[in-house]
Amino acid sequence: MKKRILSAALLLALLLSLAACSKGEQTQPEAVETPEANFPMAFCLGAQPASLDPKQYAIGDEVTYLVNLCSGLVSYRPDSAGRVQIMADLSVDLPAPQLTEDGKPFYVFTLRDDLKWSDGSALTAADFVYSWNRAFQDADTPERELFACIDGFSEGTLNIAASEDGKQLTVVLARPTPRFFERLTNPVFCPVQEAAAKNAGWDRSPETSVTSGAYALSAFSDKGMTLTKNAYYWDAANTRLDTLEFAFSEDADAILDGYMEGRYRVAASLPAGVTAQLRESEGDALRVTGRMGNYCICFNMNDPALADFTEQERADLRRALCLLIDRNAICDSIAKLGQRPAASVVPTGMTDADGTDFASHNGTDGMGGGYFSVRAEDYAANCDQAVELLRSVASSSGKFKVSKDGVCQGFPDLTFLTSASAGHVEIANAITASFHAHGIELKTSVLELSDFLEARSKGDYSMARFSWTAAYDDPASFLTLWAAGAGSNSIGLGQGAHGAYAGYAATIGGSKVDGRSWAETYDALIYTVQGSTDETLRSRCMHEAETLLMQTGAICPIYEYTGVYLCRGSFQGLFTGPAGALYFMRAESTIQEGTET
Prior knowledge:
- The chain is an alpha+beta fold.
- It is 28% helix and 20% strand.
- The strands form 7 sheets. Strands 1, 8, 9, 10, 11, 12, 13, 16, 17, 18 and 21 form an 11-stranded mixed sheet that branches. Strands 4-5-7-6 form a 4-stranded antiparallel sheet, covered by helices on one side. A two-stranded antiparallel ribbon has the order 2-3.
- Helix 11 links the parallel strand 16 and strand 17.
- It is globular, with a radius of gyration of 26 Å.
- The N and C termini lie close together (9 Å).
């Protein structure tokens, strides 16, 4: 049945305006006219955001609202070929680094002329100094560690300064920081107005909200919010839509119904299990985007259950167990939100040195495709390969046997640690069933989240679930986690008994070294990655580090996090950033007022 999209959107706008306080009387310049159709449109991305304060952003759906309300020094934009790239936003350009007298790199960002907040007041470099310190000095800021690259972080005072005329922001770094501009795309680096931020709940009240981005908040209620074009934004001439109407809903079925009935042009937070059906019925309207995150299983490198095996045997056992897991079944029957089976530590969507996808160069041959096949039709072959690895270890160790049918006898019992969420427990059960079919018994320990995290940090397990989402586009975000000295390395790589093992090889400083420890190889590669701004060198080291990590079998990727949403074909120009945020400022409708669809 056909619906009038415009009528539905206007009705939502009316409901929102009645439910929310009206914005105080302000004077804005006349909006720049564009030839495209500029009328309200309805979108539903999910539940009400917990906050619209960029300081509180913590890798969630709120990022979409923030990137449309807030602008920073840099942002993502599509280039002339449609590729999403980092470009200058409130800054005039992407400045080259310079060096202080004591050798520290620093950047001088020149702001665009006559920048203004959405209330018409001047936006200056001093606003960045205030905002960055505001976020950095709050221990509860989720992304506080992103400021660690700035000089003074460890001393409690960021080495940043605004020029007297407010036109330039100088940022001194503690050390060379690869992909510094990628860091700056995170909303935590967006400025907030000091006068506005002094008001309690300022970010979700139209009376007190002041923004720096393409849109401003004009209505907010429990049912939804209205964003209106910020005519003071420096690039307002290219902001296509005058009004964005967002409906809030925690009911995934209701969101899908709203889209199918024609009330929403864009719908996210869709019900689990409908992706395949929607792909068939809606075609290109169903869009899947990367989220720079992986769901993995990690193995305890010093697991007492496997203490009687050599290090190579333990690595082969871990790799065998990894191959026995049916990722497609987990994605299709348990996760059911369009997740992609994973075959590498670094997910697809992360950028390599040459601008291509990092994952397109992974694998032992560097040709992409991961470190094992995740195609559904190859699962049986994966199991056969796993059985061969098990046979080899059974023969060399004499600790267990493998029957001609590929079933183990006498294999050590293992413990799987997970948290008490339905999805995590179901995944644990699926893995347990796969192992059981090959004579490997897995005892599952299900704990509440706080207890789970404590037990995992203590190493009380054979296997444990682990998930990670990057805060910005850099493959190193996933690889630095597993250095011997990293606080996130709770699985014991390079620590305990494994720390004494010297069986790794790597290319360090241009020379091949062999028979070295994890710290002497993997950590050395990561040290180069963290300290070099030579993207070609970083790329080589990151690919080598990922291959080294996968050879240990310590990390078993299960699936990549994705964002799934529906978008009508009549709505064009919507693009996504690497973190999955939807950027609406270039979007426009091809349906004119009064047209039915």
